[in-house]
Specification:
alpha+beta, 278 residues, four-stranded antiparallel β-sheet, Helicase, Ruva Protein, domain 3
Length: 278
């Protein structure tokens, strides 16, 4: 699933492609929006909100989309062949004289009044890459349920918006904490929003995410995707386990040596296995 830095970068690309001229084509291929035609309206802005995208149009309308696991927006030149997937996977087409944005496999696509955007993003916590970032409020929300495991608290977009499974694993490693450690037992919890902000800011303009000092492709991340491989810090084999048994796509990676769990709440984990996609 794309995380806050990826969505921020996508919003910049969509903004550059679609603003500056009226739409010459609009095709929203979901039943409830099938009769909507935004042709002739200009795109005013494309805003990232955590993992959500808000495309604002003239006339006070906003197209809300969320990529979740498989969705994608692709941008094409007028004569360029669309390559994002078969035609039946297209959910939205927004075209200007210069570019066409095509939304593939979008699981969330809604049209609403711009004044009512809070209906779809109002539940989010402070946005790590947003203009209203508030680390104190993010910390307050994280600590509101002190018994909750650190990893689960990080993934909850109501606490702070923009963290997905990759950053969850990397943040827990950098905090020297087990993802299963209760949030209230974490030493110096104020480090969490500060470090999360630092990581996403550092990566929002990079095509390849990096959380380590190394630029080598096989050493860009501390633990994520490194199941069974040696920890880059201590050499212990990286383990995996499902943080939430109902969400297998969010497999957790951690180093049992660098991330001690004094309360013994973590599972034994799997020492080997292929990296899980995210």
């Amino acid at each position: 699933m794309p995380e806050g830095d990826t969505v921020w970068r996508l919003a910049q690309r969509l903004r550059d492609a679609l603003t500056g001229g009226p739409l010459t084509r609009c095709d929203l291929r979901v039943p409830r929006l099938a009769t909507v035609d935004l042709t002739g309206r200009g795109v005013l802005d494309v805003l990232p909100r955590g993992k959500h995208l808000l495309t604002r149009f003239e006339g006070g309308l906003t197209l809300h989309s969320h990529l979740r696991m498989d969705g994608a927006w692709q941008i094409y030149a007028p004569a360029e062949r669309w390559r994002g997937g078969p035609a039946h996977q297209i959910r939205a087409v927004l075209g200007t004289a210069d570019h066409t944005a095509v939304g593939y496999r979008l699981p969330v696509l809604d049209l609403l009044r711009t004044a009512e955007e809070s209906r779809v993003v109002g539940h989010l916590g402070p946005d790590l890459l947003g203009p209203g970032w508030d680390p104190a409020e993010a910390l307050r929300r994280l600590l509101a349920t002190p018994e909750r495991p650190l990893g689960e608290a990080l993934l909850d977009q109501r606490n702070l918006a923009g963290i997905g499974n990759v950053y969850k694993c990397e943040l827990c490693f950098l905090l020297h904490a087990s993802p299963w450690l209760p949030m209230g037992a974490l030493p110096r919890p104020e480090r969490v929003p500060t470090l999360a902000k630092k990581l996403l800011e550092a990566n929002k303009r990079r095509p390849a995410r990096i959380t380590t000092p190394s630029a080598r492709p096989d050493r860009r991340l501390w633990v994520y995707g490194r199941a069974g491989r040696p920890c880059l810090r201590c050499g212990t084999g990286i383990r995996t386990a499902d943080q939430d048994p109902t969400a297998e796509e969010r497999v957790t990676y951690w180093c049992p040596t660098c991330q001690p769990d004094p309360r013994g709440t973590r599972p034994a984990g799997r020492p080997e296995g292929p990296p899980h996609p995210n």
